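Board notes, transcribed. Complex of a protein with 7TS.
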Amino acid sequence: MSENSVDFTQVRAQFPILETVENGQPLVYLDSGATSQKPQRVIEVLDKYYREENANVHRGVYGLSERATEKYEGARETVRGFLNAKSTKEIVFVRGTTEAINLVAHSWAAENLKEDDEVIVTEMEHHSNIVPWQLLRDKLGIRLTVLRMNQNGEVCLKALQGLVSEKTKLVSVTHMSNALGSINPVKEMAEIAHSVGAKIMVDGAQATPHMTVDVRDLNCDFYALSGHKMYGPTGIGVLYAKEALLEVMPPYQGGGDMIYSVTFDKTEYNVLPYKFEAGTPHISGAIGLAAAMDFLNEIGLDNVAEYESELLSYATEKLSQIDGLRIIGQAENKGGVISFVIDGVHPHDMATLMDQDGIAVRASHHCAMPVMQYFNVPATIRASFGVYNNLSDIDRLVASIQDAKEMLL
Ligand code: 7TS
């Protein structure tokens, strides 16, 4: 490995779960694409919150509630800084990427799109960036157009240029594919969307744990992320949206906290971002997410990207040497995900045997069935990396594949 200023052995040591012994073997966790493990400091922040700080936010005049509110709003400021958003008004806490996309579909899109208007998605989207638009298609008669990919798992900007028209109202695209690892040129895609007056929504579920994301530089209109994939708790995520859009969007859910005043005749909504946060929020989740972002900021996202790119190169080289193994997704710009199939072996059988060696990989369609259809496979085996993985994890992955292959073929 090249000299990285960060000691990733120390980073790994911060994850208590990695001491787990699975089937008599030390756990090798290679399923961070599904959810990441949590560092000690995130676990401690959650523990401290419930031991010492728990109260509902925005309502109490007593000290404990004021402190919980300060922490919760402090977390919002951390998220703002992490994404380089202009204002905390643009940071809406949600359950995760899925909810963020549904919020945009139900609020912005349902309000602004009409029959025959078009939403463009890529062929490599996760189901959570396909199904909400299909639901809207059924309701409003909008069109859902697919930007196809090539055999490497890459989309072509020229093809997008040829696809957009004055009918296009939204381009909704994943920043990094969970099934292939492809990183999409979302900044350029934003320019193309904007050239016809469309908006762009970016699904950042897989990107935010692995690379620097600057929403102002990308000039995206909406950006979604999930805390649990970036070393934070489950059940918390973020929708970033430009303030001017949020300002005119109708609320997504009604309830407490999102109102300014209510009578039976009329409700006045709260200011941003509270208009979109009905009900008691996931206070500890937001605080835990901020701790995870601090953790990533301290390592430095550019260091993370460099380190994981070295892991990916090493894994690609080693896996390519295995007879009958085909890597699915060979984009030039690719993050720490390696999906593969092996001639004559069902991915689930392979992953089950690998579990016996203490290796956690995912064998599935990865909620991206159109990707499987394109490559004509029922499923792939996917190893996805996090900051805690190392070369020895990959060596054990390779050895386990070899052993399982011998048993199955
Ligand atoms: N978008 C992408 C690109 C994803 O990878 C996922 C989850 C989601 C959206 C949904 O995120 P959620 O936090 O709202 O569930 N991806 C995966 C995966 O690859 N394996 O399990 C979940």
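The chain has a mean pLDDT of 97. The longest helix spans residues 63-83.
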